[in-house]
Amino acid sequence: LDEVAGLGTSILGWNQEYIGKHEIEKVHARGWDPWLYTVNDENRARELVSYGLDGLISDVPASMRDALGLQ
Question: Which residues pair with 37 in a beta bridge?
Answer without folding.
Answer: 15
